C-alpha cells in the first residue's frame, strides 16, 4: 500500500533568486570539469593581409562536482493523525530550499572572493591580476577597490560568459519512501522524503566583477565604475566592460538605494 503525503511541486513555488544574472549554467558529464579556456575575452582586429594567429593561454582550472542532500522523516502515525496539514509546509520548505540552494552557493562564493583563488592563481578580487603585453611582459590589472568596510560589487551581466559558474551534474532528484514495503515503514512506521543534487559552483571571469570594501557613496561608486570600464586584457586591449548590476548586503542597502534611486541628494542637488 502506498500512502499519500501533502506535497507541492517545486516548480509551483515562487522564490526570489537572481543568481542567473551573473552566473552561467554549465552542464557537467563527469566528476569534474576543466576550464582551460578561462581568461579569454576575444576581440576582433582589422583584417589586413593574412590572418594573425593568436596563441590562447590555457589554465589548469578544474571544478569538481559535489553531492548535496536533505532528508526529512515523518512517523506514519503522526501523518495519519494530521488533520490540519501540519506537515505540508515541511515538504514545501524542502522544495523552497532546493530552489534557493544555488543562490546560497553563489552568494557564498561571491563573498569569499577576497580570499579564494581563481583561475590565474590570484584571489578572485585582487589588485594584481597578471595580463600579458604584446612583448611578453606582464601587466597587472585590478578588480579590487580596497577598503575594510562591508563589501559591495559591480558586475557586467551583458555577456554570455559570467563571473561565476553553476556547474550541474545532476538535477534535483526527489525521492519518497512511503510504501508499506519500504524497510523503514515496515520496521518503524517511518516515512522518509529526500532530495539530492550533484554539482558545484566556481569562479568564472574576474574581469566581469569588481569588489570593493570602500564606503558605498558617489565617490566610491564612480571610482569603481571608472576602474572597471577602463580595464584592459592581454595586449592592453580595452575590454569594453559595462557594469550594470550593483550587489550589496543589508548594511549597504540604504546607501545603494539613495545612490541609484533617489532623485535628489541630501543637499538638494540633482542625483545624476
Please give a quick description of this structure.
This protein is of the alpha+beta class.
Task: Furnish the topology, listing elements before pairings.
Elements: E1 23-27, E2 32-34, E3 62-64, E4 66-75, H1 76-81, H2 88-111, E5 129-132, E6 138-141, E7 144-147, E8 152-155, E9 164-177, H3 183-188, E10 190-203, E11 209-213, H4 218-229, E12 245-248, H5 253-260
Parallel strand pairs: 1-9, 7-11
Antiparallel strand pairs: 2-3, 4-10, 5-6, 8-11, 8-12, 9-10
Rounded mean pLDDT score? 85
Task: Please provide the ordered H/E string of secondary-structure elements.
Answer: EEEEHHEEEEEHEEHEH
Cα-based radius of gyration, to the nearest Å: 24 Å
Uncertain stretches of 5 or more adjacent residues: none
What is the end-to-end distance?
Answer: 67 Å
Main sheet specs = 4 strands, mixed
What is the percentage of strand-forming residues? Answer: 25-35%
What is the approximate shape? Answer: flat
Number of helical segments with 4 or more residues: 5
Give the strand line-up of the largest sheet.
1-9-10-4
- Helix coverage percent of residues? 10-25%
Return the structural class: alpha+beta
How many strands in all? 12
Amino acid at each position: 500500500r502506498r500512502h499519500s503525503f501533502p506535497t507541492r511541486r517545486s516548480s509551483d513555488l515562487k522564490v526570489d533568486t537572481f543568481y542567473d544574472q551573473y552566473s552561467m549554467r554549465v552542464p557537467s558529464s563527469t566528476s569534474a570539469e576543466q576550464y582551460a579556456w578561462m581568461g579569454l575575452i576575444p576581440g576582433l582586429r582589422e583584417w589586413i593581409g593574412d590572418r594573425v594567429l593568436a596563441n590562447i593561454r590555457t589554465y589548469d582550472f578544474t571544478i569538481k562536482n559535489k553531492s548535496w542532500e536533505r532528508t526529512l522523516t515523518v512517523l506514519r502515525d503522526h501523518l495519519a493523525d494530521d488533520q490540519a496539514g501540519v506537515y505540508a509546509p515541511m515538504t514545501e520548505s524542502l522544495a523552497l530550499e532546493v530552489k534557493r540552494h544555488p543562490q546560497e552557493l553563489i552568494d557564498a562564493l561571491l563573498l569569499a572572493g577576497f580570499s579564494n583563488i581563481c583561475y590565474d592563481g590570484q584571489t578572485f578580487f585582487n589588485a594584481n591580476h597578471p595580463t600579458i603585453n604584446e612583448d611578453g611582459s606582464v601587466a597587472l590589472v585590478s578588480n579590487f577597490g580596497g577598503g575594510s568596510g562591508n563589501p559591495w560589487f559591480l558586475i557586467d551581466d551583458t555577456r554570455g560568459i559570467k563571473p561565476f559558474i553553476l556547474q550541474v551534474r545532476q538535477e534535483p532528484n526527489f525521492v519518497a519512501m512511503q510504501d508499506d514495503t519500504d524497510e523503514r515503514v515496515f520496521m518503524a512506521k517511518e516515512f522518509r522524503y529526500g532530495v539530492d543534487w550533484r554539482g558545484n559552483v566556481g569562479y568564472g571571469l574576474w574581469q566581469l566583477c569588481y569588489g570593493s570594501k570602500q564606503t558605498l557613496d558617489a565617490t566610491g561608486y564612480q571610482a569603481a565604475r571608472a576602474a572597471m570600464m577602463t580595464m584592459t586584457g592581454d595586449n592592453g586591449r580595452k575590454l569594453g566592460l559595462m557594469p550594470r548590476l550593483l550587489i550589496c548586503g543589508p548594511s549597504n542597502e540604504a546607501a545603494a538605494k539613495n545612490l541609484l534611486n533617489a532623485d535628489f541628494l541630501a543637499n538638494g542637488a540633482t542625483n545624476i
